[in-house]
Design goal:
The complex is a heterodimer of chains A (229) and B (111). Chain A has 229 residues and is an alpha+beta fold. Chain A is built from four helices and eight strands, in the order βββαβαβαββαβ. Chain A has a four-stranded antiparallel beta sheet with strand order 2-3-1-4. In chain A, strand 2 and strand 3 form a beta hairpin. The two termini of chain A are 22 Å apart. By secondary structure, chain B is mainly α. In chain B, 17% of the residues are buried. Classes of the chains: A alpha+beta (229), B mainly alpha (111). Chains A and B meet through helix 1, helix 3 and strand 8 of A and helix 1, helix 2 and helix 3 of B.
Chain lengths: 229, 111
């Protein structure tokens, strides 16, 4: 039976969730200075109509551990054999241990920033279209900078991922500063013509890679069967 | 507190919805499945071209005539992708394919 891994963390006393996806037992594997939890499941258990429920159960298990300590979540769903999971921990041990120690007391908060939807007529020319896009991007950039300067309370680092319709800002925040961060965000002057929404705390995996490397997978570590070597 | 709970619920719903985004090619909906795949790739290219065009505009390396030409092409391409997607019963967000362990084709736009 394949394993559905939930997350990786540093070994130590932790209250493991008793039940995971599809009410299956959550089991622990330790290797190379790391601990990983998983359930042994038939992949059909999370197929079709059960997929969404399973995704939420998965999220609950990861956050159960994350409430107590730093974790590196796996993307849902990844299926591995016990040997593959063990090999992965051995292979990534140095990187994961370093990350989990460095961010033992940190979490990431996410701020999604987007413009007020102002109905605009279709651009009348190519230049107008491009100018609108450029101005929109500049407004986003400026709003993101305003927020970063306004909110420094408990923030160790910011990362910004801009796109055309939404800019995502990630703040690396100490666990004991989450409330102060939220307060500082709600006190911050709202950048003009934009709205934002805060979510978190999440595992600080956006900060696992150097700032110039994007993490396409977002808040999770992605491994697959093809990545064994 | 209510805001935090609402935010968490929204995140959970997004997590579940996002995870379910896959190409679904069955004999009954093969047209839609293929259209989704092709339009997704075209939309990805359009986004890349758009970003590149903005960079070049900011860098001042484009003549007005080039900006006009590029702007019109991008605008029409965007319109055409939307029209075609609609014809196949696809929403704009359906084109952002979920690539399993790699994440989505482009950063999600969900607010």
């Amino acid at each position: 039976m394949p394993l559905l891994p939930y997350c990786v963390f540093l070994p130590g006393p932790v209250d493991l969730p008793k039940h995971g996806v599809a009410n299956d037992a959550v089991q622990l594997l330790e290797a190379a200075g790391l601990a990983a939890i998983y359930s042994e499941l038939d992949p059909q258990t999370v197929a079709g109509d059960r997929f969404q429920r399973a995704a939420l159960d998965f999220h609950d298990v990861v956050h159960g551990v994350f409430a107590e300590r730093a974790v590196i979540p796996f993307r849902f769903p990844i299926w591995l054999s016990a040997d593959e999971l063990r090999d992965h921990l051995v292979k990534e041990s140095a990187k994961y241990v370093d990350f989990l120690r460095k961010h033992a007391h940190n979490v990431q908060m996410e701020v999604r920033l987007w413009p007020f939807d102002v109905a605009q007529k279709q651009a009348g020319s190519g230049i107008e279209h491009m100018t609108r896009l450029m101005e929109r991007e500049m407004r986003f950039r400026s709003a993101a900078e305003t927020l970063q300067h306004a909110v420094t309370e408990g923030v160790r680092e910011w990362r910004v991922h801009p796109s055309r319709d939404l800019t995502r800002l990630f703040a690396l925040v100490q666990r004991n500063a989450i409330a102060r961060f939220r307060q500082a965000m709600s006190d911050a002057i709202r950048p003009g013509n934009t709205r934002f929404r805060i979510s978190g705390p999440w595992p600080a995996t956006e900060f696992m890679h150097p700032a110039n490397e994007s993490n396409a997978a977002g808040n999770v570590v992605s491994i697959g069967r093809g990545e064994k070597s | 507190m209510e805001q935090a709970v609402e935010g968490l619920n929204q995140e959970l719903a997004e997590l579940a919805n996002g995870a379910a985004q896959r190409i679904d090619c069955t004999p009954e909906n093969i047209d839609q499945g293929l259209a989704r795949l092709v339009l997704s790739l075209i939309e990805l290219l359009r986004r890349l071209l758009e970003r590149q065009a903005i960079r070049r505009m900011e860098g001042g390396s484009l003549e007005d005539a080039q900006i006009e030409e590029m702007g019109l092409a991008l605008m029409k391409l965007e319109q055409k992708i939307r029209e075609l997607a609609q014809q196949f019963g696809l929403r704009p967000e359906d084109l952002n394919l979920e690539l399993g362990p790699l994440g989505n084709l482009w950063p999600e736009d969900k607010k």
